[in-house]
Amino acid sequence: MSQREWIEKDFYKELGVSSGASADEIKKAYRKLARDLHPDANPGDAKAEERFKSVSEAHAVLSDPAKRKEYDEARRLFASGGFGQGGGGFNPGAGGFGQGGFDINDLFGGGGAAAGDGGLGDIFGGLFNRGAGGGGATRTTNRPRRGSDVETETTLEFREATLGVTVPLRLTSPSPCTTCHGSGAKPGTSPRVCPRCNGTGIVSRNQGAFGFSEPCDDCRGTGSIIDSPCEVCHGNGVTNRTRTITVRVPAGVSDGQKIRLAGQGEAGLRGAPSGDLFVTVRVRPDKVFGRNGDDLTLVVPVSYGELVLGTTVSVPTLEGRVGVKIPAGTADGRILRVRGRGVPKRAGGAGDLLVTVKVAVPQKLDDPATEALKTYLEAEKASGFDPRAGWAGA
């Protein structure tokens, strides 16, 4: 794909969102489309696979605030004729475009992300070369294009997430061609420097006081020509394949947290670096434990007599059981802290286990227990204890 084709693509339309869509709207639209179009869900469907790649490409640009801003600016300039002939789009005296005062250096690599990561600074670098002969300083624009980042999800059990686990992930995404090792050339051959642009990927033409540069048609802006393309990837250096990778999820990961795996994303074109893989972890709720930061929470049922007289109860932990002492006269709902028995911390150590005692009221008592309870209530009144003493509703 040439740079012009890339700019003329409507990534918003690919995702089915408006140009003013929020980051959350873009993410939601991408997830739905990626789930529906994923090759695993559409085996043998070439159209679905192509749409999946297009949607992934659109998301890679629009989900990155810097790339999205550059993309929007470039499309605005093309739409308004900012790069065309006449129309007042380019004002050399003001150093900007139109009335907005847009700084050309921001878009064409004068600083920021565009200058170093193969973004629009590479695509449009050297577009305006001062001088009638277009003999200004030239720059190489055919830097290898880094692969897009890839997102996926994995679901873990509560204890797996808190203690850490290693899980296999099956991914279908563009990866380096194993036949040509990403070069795009048939094994035993190599790409050659484009003779028309001398490897720069751009050609210049004169127009008035300026020399304009545009992508070279012979090499499609890459700076090199492949005479014998790889028969597997057809010269792209990338093939869509399914692979299984092993991911180690660290202890203490929380629901919704992302894990970044450098270089495990979509392959770059013709041997360029691969993007990253971001794995979003979903954690299933546990029947016993809850979580509050690095602390585990647990509710243990006790009898009224155990709270009054005090006792020691055995409660579960992530790796076994521990005895918790309930002091005499403990109130219902009190939280008892067991230090160091919570979620492991990245810096070492662990949070605490917070045990809430909750009175379990018997639904039915036999005659001896009923008589004993009546005797207790009479003794309680005789001792002067009033559970509603000082209560506002008394």
Give the fraction of residues assigned to helices.
10-25%
- Total helical segments: 10
Uncertain segments of ≥5 residues (pLDDT<50)? 83-142
Q: Assign the CATH topology of one domain.
A: Chaperone, DNAj Protein, Chain A
CATH class membership of one domain: Mainly Beta
Write down the Rg. Answer: 33 Å
Shape: elongated
Looking at CATH, the homologous superfamily of one domain is Heat shock protein DnaJ, cysteine-rich domain
- How confident is the prediction overall: mean pLDDT? 78
Structural class call reads alpha+beta
What is the rounded distance between the termini? 80 Å
User: Which strand order do you get reading across the main beta sheet?
Assistant: 13-14-18-17
**Percent of residues in beta strands:** 25-35%
CATH architecture of one domain: Ribbon
Number of strands: 18
- Which H/E pattern describes the elements? HHHHHEEHHEEHEEEEEEEEEEHEEEEH
Largest sheet: 4 strands, mixed
Subunit structure: Homodimer.
Keywords: Chaperone, Cytoplasm, DNA replication, Metal-binding, Repeat, Stress response, Zinc, Zinc-finger
Subcellular location: Cytoplasm
GO molecular function: ATP binding; heat shock protein binding; unfolded protein binding; zinc ion binding
